[in-house]
Amino acid sequence: MTKEIEALIKELEDAKAEAARFREEHQGACHLVAQMHAAAVGEVTGPNRGVVEDVEDLRRSRDQWKKEWELSERNKMDREAEIVELKAKLVKMEK
């Protein structure tokens, strides 16, 4: 009976050690995800919708901003070309 009790105590100690290890690993994983989220969104906050969804939102926002910027740059270049054209026409008209 004593050996059975000793075996059960050993099993309990092993289970407690394993639970502690799992808890540590879980905390480490949570910390890593929190760091990655902070790096992606630029600040330490809890997720708005979810870690992955927040990063998706940021990428979508960045891509939309980039498209708008590229469009405004093209428009600017078009306007500059029109100005050059109009100046050339004006110079011809003045001659």
Characterise this structure.
88% of the residues lie in helices and 0% in strands. The chain has 95 residues and is mainly alpha-helical. It folds into 2 domains: 46 residues; 48 residues. α1 packs parallel to α2. The protein starts with a helix and ends with a helix. The model has no long low-confidence stretch (mean pLDDT 89).
Q: What does this entry show, briefly?
A:
This protein folds into 2 domains: about 1-45; about 50-95. The chain contains 2 helices and no strands. It has helices at about 1-40, 50-95.
Which features does this protein show?
95 residues; mainly alpha
Poorly predicted spans: none
Please state the CA-atom Rg, rounded to the nearest Å: 32 Å
Shape: rod-shaped
Question: How many strands in all?
Answer: 0
| N→C terminal distance | 118 Å
Q: Provide the residue-averaged pLDDT.
A: 89
Q: What kind of sheet is the major sheet? A: none
Question: Helix and strand string, N-terminal first?
Answer: HH
Strand content: under 5%
Helix fraction? over 70%
> Which structural class best describes the helix and strand composition?
mainly alpha
Write down the domain tally. 2
SSE map:
Elements: H1 2-41, H2 51-94
Helix pairs in contact: 1-2
